[in-house]
Design brief:
Chain lengths: ~220, ~190
């Protein structure tokens, strides 16, 4: 390090005195400083030298107009692609594609006694699996949109809609309640998301593969 | 989670000004861009100011500020609230500035246009203006780590400990960086005596 000495004749460190001036702090040793001519001279010099830096502190650059709008435009573009549920974890973020939630919800609904079938795809199409990596920048594929139908996600909150055909002989309110419970538990367990609402649509009655009402099953 | 609803539903309530950062952060983490917008309005000056002082130039500063705030939205789910939101934003801003400067390498702060101390003594006002320019150039010429430490403590008024947390270094390391930065600036100022 070239330049002037870093220590005064009295043994005080110039860095400490500079820090005192720059921070506007109290002296570490006021007794000494009051009496010591070296310290007093150094402090006077430093205060003068440092003044322009103080002036710089007082001139904050003005924020350009429209910064907020530009930021929010980019944020909205991301936020409206609600094709991911987002789970904050200790060490990072887990994103679950909405169609994955749909599949988990469907399977959970299917496990309930009295449920014959749950409408929608049984598994995500291979094309959707391949596309999931590119999804964040390009938006969901048609297949993913279809797979995610009836799933609403915002952050870690999920709203699920399931359409069922049921076997006759099961009281529907009880059945719907069982489906709700199963979906909440199943989705929560497998994805860690909060299912805040499950809408159950009973679309048809079906027995032994025969559609009772419209007769066009089997 | 309840929103404190004030007695009179005034404009300040509707635009979220009375809501504290912690509440808005939680709402934004659940996916509310509206809550995030209030946070942006509240903190954009801080973000831009730091960005400007770190990159030293308006266009680049705006890029850094934009990138930092958008990154903040993306990273929100991982914000655990164990530091203040503004501290966390400082860290994101500093990283965004560092990234931009690294991308734009080679950054040569010495452009040859730095003002040199006048040999004679012209108008005092001119000297002041020139000295301010020289000082800005000296701040820009500091190594990034020293500059970041100096900007946070000297210009933003963070404590040594807060700044150390933002930059994820120990407090003694941070104090060392600031001392070196101050020494450099002091040497520049000595040239203007």
């Amino acid at each position: 390090m070239t330049g002037p000495a870093r220590e005064l004749a009295c043994g005080c460190s110039l860095d400490d005195l500079l820090a005192q001036v720059a921070d506007g702090a109290d002296p570490a040793d006021p007794e000494h400083q009051r009496a010591c001519p070296h310290c007093r001279a150094a402090l006077a010099e430093l205060a003068e030298l440092w003044a322009p830096v103080r002036a710089l502190e007082e001139e904050p650059p003005a924020t350009p107009v429209g910064l907020d709008a530009k930021v929010m435009e980019r944020v909205s573009a991301m936020a409206t692609h609600a094709w991911h549920a987002v789970v904050p974890e200790r060490d990072g973020v887990t994103r679950v594609a909405a169609w994955v939630v749909a599949v988990v919800a469907r399977r959970a609904a299917q496990r309930v006694e009295g449920v014959r079938s749950v409408r929608g795809q049984a598994a995500p199409p291979p094309a959707a699996v391949a596309a999931v990596r590119a999804e964040w920048t390009t938006g969901p594929t048609a297949a993913q949109r279809a797979g995610a139908m009836g799933i609403g996600v915002a952050g870690r909150r999920v709203v699920v809609t399931v359409q069922l055909t049921v076997a006759p002989g099961h009281p529907l309110p009880q059945l719907a309640e069982d489906v709700r419970r199963s979906v909440v538990a199943g989705v929560g367990e497998l994805t860690g998301l909060d299912v805040v609402e499950v809408d159950v649509h009973v679309a048809d009655l079906e027995e032994d593969g025969v559609n009772q009402i419209t007769g066009d099953g089997a | 989670m309840t929103t404190p609803v004030p007695g009179d539903l005034d404009a300040a309530f509707l635009d979220g000004r009375h809501l504290d950062d912690a509440y808005l952060v939680r709402r934004a983490q659940q996916g509310s861009p509206d809550a995030f917008e209030v946070l942006v309005a509240r903190h954009r000056d801080q973000v831009y100011r730091v960005a400007h002082r770190l990159v030293g130039e308006s266009a680049a500063a705006e890029d850094v500020a934009q990138d930092a705030l958008v990154s903040a939205w993306r990273a929100l789910p991982s914000f655990r609230g164990d530091a203040a939101f503004s501290t966390w934003l400082h860290r994101i801003t500093t990283n965004a500035a560092r990234q931009l400067l690294t991308r734009r390498r080679p950054v040569d702060p010495l452009t040859g246009e730095e003002p040199v101390p006048p040999s004679e003594h012209p108008d005092a006002q001119v000297v002041d203006a020139e000295r301010t320019r020289a000082l800005r150039a000296a701040v820009r010429a500091l190594p990034f780590d020293q500059r970041a430490a100096l900007v946070l403590v000297q210009f933003e008024g963070l404590s040594y400990l807060e700044a150390a947390r933002v930059l994820e270094v120990s407090e003694p390391t941070l104090r060392g960086r600031i001392a070196r930065a101050r020494r450099s600036l002091l040497d520049t100022m000595r040239g203007w005596q």
